[in-house]
Write a structure and sequence with these properties.
Elements: E1 16-23, E2 26-33, E3 39-43, E4 64-65, E5 68-69, H1 76-90, H2 95-104, H3 108-121, H4 125-138, H5 142-154, H6 161-173, H7 177-190, H8 195-207, H9 211-222, H10 227-246, H11 250-260, H12 268-280, H13 284-297, H14 302-307
Antiparallel strand pairs: 1-2, 2-3, 4-5
Helix pairs in contact: 1-2, 1-3, 2-3, 2-4, 3-4, 4-5, 5-6, 6-7, 7-8, 8-9, 8-10, 9-10, 10-11, 10-12, 11-12, 12-13
Bound molecules: zinc ion (2 copies).
The site of one zinc ion has 8 residues, from loops.
Length: about 325
Amino acid sequence: MSTPPLSCPNCRSAFVSWRTERVGDVLCDSLSCETCGTLCAQEDWDLPLDPTGPGFCRNCSGKRRGPICSRCGLSAQDDAQVHLELLELTGAKDLLSGSALAAEKGRRLLALKLATAAVYDSPAPGVARLLRISLLQDLDLLQAALFECQSWVRGPGENDPHAWSLLGELQIACGKRGLGLQALEQALELQPDDAQVRGRYASHLFDDQRYAQAREQALLVLSSKDSVASTLGLGVAASYAQRLKGQRDQAAVEDLLEDLGHWVQRDATLSAIQAWLFNQKGAQREAQDALRQAHKLDPKHPLVGELEDLVGIKRWSWFGW
Ligand SMILES: [Zn+2]
Ligand SMILES: [Zn+2]
């Protein structure tokens, strides 16, 4: 294993940086000079893409026959030695921090190798697995990330809500939406108060046109104190309200806005739809107040422009607010 140069061999610039790139069919960590563009070093490690598990090689994820890997031929001892040398390249003391450091520097293949070894050898295999899966996702190796996650929930991650929610998102990203929603449900069963997972679940339900369930989940999310999740829940509620308005289902809009309570004033779409609802009921002053609120939150919102004539607000009068 050769040590990569600290400066450019061509122009001596110290501004050299790593990035992971595809060269033909092969993924490489490449070190390039930022001044003259010279390629200073390139590493294309054997990548462990198949799921980790007892009896598999850290180096290439092949199956071991006795002590020898049936794919790359490394003995268990050489396998361990290779990863010690890889760790030395990062200057870190343990596999997990070595992996994080390599990823931060742009050496994502090296990071993946160290995270994989950490699944076997670190005292926090669950954290290592999360890191390994997120690196596979970053490298756009979604199938490999999905397979790793599937093997995780079949084994030590069986009762881990993070493993299940990650599996759900990966399945949805790979086009398996039904299975993905089921995995998210499993995650929520294990950890019902994870509002962010519930927010994403609500959003996926809406995308799958399961509107009644999406509505119910969005309201649950909004009853949490999590601001990130609230944004998701509010987004789902606003999309649903917009759909109901499109159907001119006044009763359902009214019902939804009533359930949302004070959240309506926090969202431009919902405030504008409230203006529409007041207008339908002949309450023009309330309609104007609601549209002013929508304008305050988002002056360029298309519904604001669409409704200003209807509720009797002159375009120029916004400037007074
Ligand atoms: Zn250079
Ligand atoms: Zn191997």
